Amino acid sequence: MSSTPAGDFSRKIRVSSLRDKKLQHQPITCLTAYDYPSARLVDQAEIDIILVGDSLAMTMLGYPDTLSVTMEEMLHHVRAVRRGVKHALLIADMPYGSYHLGSDEAIRNATRFVKEAGAEAVKVEGGEKRVDIIRPIIEAEIPVAGHIGLTPQSVNAMGGYKVQGKTLTDIEQLVRDAVALDRAGVACIFLEGMPREVAAMITSEVNAPTIGIGAGPECDGQVLVLHDILGLTFDPPAKFVRRYGDAAALISRAVENFRDDVHSREYPSDSESYHLPKDTQSALETLLERKRRIRR
Ligand code: KIV
């Protein structure tokens, strides 16, 4: 198991830092990371929260949705991210099926993320109907992040990835969900895929910081999927995604250049090759010359 990360603890983001930021109206930043190098880079950029999202099912593992990713796969990625994070708060996503069978199973799986992978909090999708599962996890000393609105694990139940909270009935349910999570004592609430007016209302209604994705600018913080902002996904991006780079083009160009350089023998050059020490080289030449003379 990984221990608490070493380093400069004054910059360490904790669950309490998120509430402080909300109270001081300081925007909270959150990105996903799924492996060691990306975790290091995101952490070095002083992003507040690193989420090992179950979106890795699609971005890293090529599954069509988030439903089939397993606890073992999630643990593998959380461990790698843990090794790269010193300052950010590290949240692990509870995958589909890991908290649906009852609170004992949910506590067992949440505990695994903490003990076996070094997560500092777990994220659970769902509002009011999940509170009976979330409360025992919090009582087991594990901070929980809520997640309401367009919850990708409900894709089959929702009939697709649809913006939520468009009717008064749905808005009332979303507010009830947020208030129930807040009362249960969650560390923060992810608001995904809902009109900005609804997210703004929820944000002013709850004490827990809200982290929006496709939920407008009034949330206490914003989260995006790292591969989306890097342009490293293959489907057209959602409306709310802002691309800050084109890593796919960068990778493709580098790979094609390597291929061409090998084909044309441009790679490796002499300066990219190892050389024999001078005395070994002349001894080798003498030996080869002797062999040539014997053969003649
Ligand atoms: O899995 C994920 O990446 C998420 C965020 C987008 C909120 O749940």
Notable features of this structure?
single chain; 296 residues; alpha/beta; TIM Barrel; 2 domains; binds 3-methyl-2-oxobutanoic acid
What's this entry about, in short?
This protein has 296 residues and is an alpha/beta fold. Helix content is 44%, strand content 13%. An eight-stranded parallel beta barrel has the order 1-2-3-4-5-6-7-8, surrounded by seven helices.
Overview of the molecule:
The protein has helices at 15-23, 36-44, 56-59, 71-84, 103-117, 131-139, 155-158, 168-184, 196-205, 226-229, 247-263, 278-295, and strands spanning 28-32, 49-52, 89-93, 121-125, 144-149, 188-192, 210-213, 221-224. The longest helix has 18 residues, at 278-295. The relative contact order is 0.11. The protein has 296 residues and is of the alpha/beta class. The protein is elongated. Residues 1-6 have low confidence and may be disordered. Strand 1, helix 2 (36-44) and strand 2 form a beta-alpha-beta unit. The chain is built from 12 helices and 8 strands. Helix 2 (36-44) packs across helix 4 (71-84). An 8-stranded parallel barrel has the order 1-2-3-4-5-6-7-8, surrounded by 7 helices. It has 2 domains: 15-246, Phosphoenolpyruvate-binding domains (TIM Barrel, Alpha-Beta Barrel); 251-295, no CATH class. 3-methyl-2-oxobutanoic acid binds at residues 32, 51, 53-55, 93, 190, 192, 213, 223, 225.
Per CATH, which architecture of the largest domain? Alpha-Beta Barrel
Whole-number total of structural domains: 2
Sequence stretches where pLDDT stays below 50 over 5 or more residues: 1-6
Biggest β-sheet, characterized? 8 strands, parallel, barrel
Order of helices and strands: HEHEHHEHEHEHHEHEEHHH
Within CATH, the superfamily of the largest domain carries the name Phosphoenolpyruvate-binding domains
Number of strands: 8
Helical content class? 40-55%
- What spatial form do the alpha-carbon principal axes imply? elongated
Bound molecules: 3-methyl-2-oxobutanoic acid
CATH topology of the largest domain: TIM Barrel
Alpha-carbon Rg, integer: 25 Å
First-last Cα distance: 66 Å
> Largest sheet, order of strands side by side?
1-2-3-4-5-6-7-8
CATH class of the largest domain: Alpha Beta
Supply the helix-strand structural class: alpha/beta
Percent of residues in β-strands: 5-15%
Number of helices: 12
